[in-house]
Amino acid sequence: MKPSSGVTGSKATLAQVVYKHRATSNAKEHTVQDLMTTISTLRRPRLLARAAKEGAQEYVRERHLQRILGYGSLPGSGAALMRLMELERDVNAQRLEDDSAYSLVRHLDLMIAIVGEARLFQASRAYRLE
Question: What whole-number distance in Å separates Cα of residue 73 and Cα of residue 108?
C-alpha cells in the first residue's frame, strides 16, 4: 500500500474525484436527455402510437418487462428504456422492410413498454429533483 502523500495530495485526489463525479453526472444527464429526446421524436404509424398510449395506462412493469426482456432481475428504468428502444428499432426495421417475421403484437408490446417506462422514468426524475 502506498503511503499518504500529505494534505495536498489528499486535496488533489478529492478534487479529481469531484471532477470525475461531475463529468460522469453530466454524461449521464446528457444520456438521459438524449434518450428522452429520442423517445419524443419517434415517428411511428398513428394507430400504433395511439394504441401504445392507451395500453400504457395498464402498464405493469414487472409483468410486461419480464415478458419482453426475459425473466430475472429487472434493470432500472433508464437501462430498460435503452434496451426497449434497441428492440423496437429492430422490429420497426422489419415493419419497414415488409419482413415476414414482423409481428404487430410484438411491436405494440414494445411501444407500450416504452411509453410506460418513459412515464415511470420521468416521474422518478421529477421526484429526485424535489
Answer: 23
CA distance 51 to 73: 28
Q: Kindly report the length of the chain.
A: 130
Q: Cell numbers at residue 9, please?
A: 495530495
Q: What is the dihedral of CA 35, 125, 44, 67, to 10 degrees?
A: 100
- Geometric angle at alpha carbon 104, from 56 and 33, rounded to 5°: 50
**From CA 53, how far away is CA 47, in angstroms rounded?**
10
Residues contacting residue 42 through CB under 8 Å, at least 6 positions apart: 49
Collect all residues with Cβ–Cβ distance below 8 Å to 61 and sequence separation of at least 6: 74, 116, 117, 120
Report the alpha-carbon distance of residue 128 to residue 130 in Å, rounded.
6
pLDDT tens digits, 5-35: 444 444 444 444 434 434 443 444 445 557 6
CA 82 to chain centre: 4
Residue at grid coordinates 405494440: 108
